[in-house]
Structure to design on (551 residues):
């Protein structure tokens, strides 16, 4: 096991917790104190033999010195750097994260917030441009105003106006001013009533909200298992979601997951999962359900280590359960080499791959993808497609895996033939 | 040049005001209040200038103008479009549809008079 530079910080914490001096640990591990100092300050990477000796000297398991969440943090910071046109010290990210974890988390949080705000601006702008109610109300006011302006000008500027015309214009002016007043009332009522809609727009994307809610529950809803409290027990939590769109989405997911739980009861599913070697096709046959349902059941069961992404035919993710080591980008800007997209083009055909995510410490995953068409309107009607990809860490596998990434902008595979745009990490693959 | 204006505007008070202003300037003004049979009305009245509102019942001003521009008799008819203020897309659409001029509501009387006059100045 190699170790990212960031783990130097963790090594240092561990040493200090044990009350060991740098010189003592260095001696025990057979390296110089100055080299250990550089390692601890994330200035040097550790080779596997040195790491093993250090872990041995500290009396800790190798795995304790690594932490998958670091990788997620690094990906987040890279994504934040990707928004920036001016150069950022990309090769110092781990150093930065290790030395200033609080500032790094602040930067990550601000990057997330920035994304939310950009989306809000987009939505509000879109609403102003396309909301038919607002457009109709404005048109009414502008029409009345045009009439008032022209009529009033005629009355003010025409000295020799006939009495009959004057009377008619006065009547028009009166009617239009009434119309203007009621038009203004409609506008005010619209703006007042739009408070909730504005809040919807100001909240995170509904999908993010639902994913955040599921993540906070460990991506597992025991309430939906047969014989448990049932979906009603989750309704108060759903009602507390910020936007109406998120509440509606969460409700849809509850129904889907409740159905999965009923058709694949855990007491039968867990042994079947072990018995079938985790093969989703065999499991689907055994329970008489679709493969996507099995994917969901695997990823949303208690303590599942698998990640999951489900997308529609446009490749837009509908739900993303990320893994710490496998970030799932937002807004569909994912790596086109993911088996997920291969499956989308080959409905009902299993697509399986061992894949490597690049990085200082490349990560191996077993990715299984499947696409199910749904003829929602019968034989001659519309056919919808949904594809899903189950993401399982697979550290044991050797050989060369499918060289995938997260998304082009933060992927270091410079020569990738599937590249859409240059990477900000050029030269670091 | 002739002095006949056809005004296609569904707001009766606006139509009345424009008619009054143009009458006082010596124009003969006919009015029509929907988009549906506006093209037929243009062919029937053969105006020298057409004033065309965008928001009309039946068919939008853009649709009416596109049909007029596609027919040889009306391909070059001077057209002044009335669009709503701030609707940038309306202005672009008016230009694309082939309007000679457009003014935005709420317009001033002087503006509409000057625009109509400019369309018939040789």
């Amino acid at each position: 096991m190699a170790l990212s530079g960031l783990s130097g910080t963790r090594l240092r914490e561990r040493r200090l917790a044990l009350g060991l001096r740098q010189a003592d640990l260095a001696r025990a591990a057979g390296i110089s104190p100055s080299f250990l100092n550089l390692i601890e300050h994330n200035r040097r990477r550790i080779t596997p033999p040195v790491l093993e000796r250090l872990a041995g000297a500290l009396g800790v398991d190798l795995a304790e010195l690594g932490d998958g969440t670091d990788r997620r943090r690094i990906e987040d910071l890279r994504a934040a750097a990707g928004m920036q046109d001016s150069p950022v010290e990309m090769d110092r990210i781990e150093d930065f994260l290790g030395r200033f974890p609080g500032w790094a988390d602040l930067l990550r949080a601000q990057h997330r917030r920035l994304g939310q705000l950009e989306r809000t601006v987009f939505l509000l702008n879109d609403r102003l441009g396309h909301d038919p109610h607002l457009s109709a109300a404005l048109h009414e006011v502008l029409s009345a105003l045009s009439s008032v302006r022209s009529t009033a000008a005629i009355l003010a500027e025409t000295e020799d106006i006939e009495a009959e015309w004057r009377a008619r214009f006065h009547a028009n002016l009166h009617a239009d001013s009434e119309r203007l007043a009621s038009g203004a009332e409609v506008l005010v009522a619209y703006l007042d009533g739009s408070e909730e809609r504005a809040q919807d727009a100001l909240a995170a994307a509904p999908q993010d909200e639902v994913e955040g809610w599921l993540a906070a529950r460990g991506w597992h809803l025991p309430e939906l298992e047969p014989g448990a409290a049932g979906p009603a027990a989750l309704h108060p939590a759903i009602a507390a979601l910020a936007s109406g769109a998120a509440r509606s989405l969460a409700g849809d997911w509850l129904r889907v997951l409740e159905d999965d739980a009923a058709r694949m009861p855990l007491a039968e599913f867990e042994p079947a999962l072990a018995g079938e070697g985790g093969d989703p096709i065999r499991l689907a046959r055994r329970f008489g359900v679709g493969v996507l349902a099995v994917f969901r059941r695997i990823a949303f069961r208690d303590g599942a280590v698998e990640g999951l992404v489900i997308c529609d035919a446009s490749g837009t993710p509908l739900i993303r359960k990320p893994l710490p080591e496998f970030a799932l980008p937002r807004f569909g800007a994912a790596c086109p080499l993911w088996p997920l997209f291969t499956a989308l083009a080959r409905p009902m055909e299993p697509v399986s791959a061992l894949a490597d995510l690049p990085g200082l410490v490349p990560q191996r995953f077993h990715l299984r993808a499947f696409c199910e068409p749904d003829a929602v309107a019968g034989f001659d009607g519309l056919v919808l497609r949904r594809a899903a990809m189950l993401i399982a860490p697979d550290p044991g596998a050797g050989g060369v895996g499918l060289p995938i990434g997260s998304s082009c902008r933060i992927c270091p595979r410079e020569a990738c033939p599937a590249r859409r745009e240059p990477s900000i990490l050029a030269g670091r693959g | 040049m002739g002095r006949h204006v056809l005004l296609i505007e569904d707001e009766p008070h606006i139509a009345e005001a424009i008619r009054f202003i143009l009458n006082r300037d010596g124009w003969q003004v006919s009015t029509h209040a929907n988009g549906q049979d506006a093209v037929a009305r243009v062919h029937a009245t053969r105006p020298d200038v057409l004033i065309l509102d965008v928001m009309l019942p039946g068919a939008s001003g853009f649709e009416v103008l596109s049909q007029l521009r596609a027919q040889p008799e009306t391909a070059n008819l001077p057209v002044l479009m009335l669009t709503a203020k701030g609707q940038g897309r309306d202005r672009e659409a008016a230009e694309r549809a082939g309007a000679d001029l457009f003014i935005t509501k709420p317009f001033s009387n002087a503006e509409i008079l000057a625009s109509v006059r400019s369309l018939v100045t040789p």
User: Anything to note?
Assistant: The longest strand of chain B covers residues 79-84. Helices of chain B lie at 12-24, 38-45, 61-69, 88-97, 109-120. The interface with chain A takes residues 11, 13-14, 16-18, 20-21, 24, 55, 84-85, 89, 105-109, 112 of chain B (CB under 8 Å). Chain B has five helices and five strands.
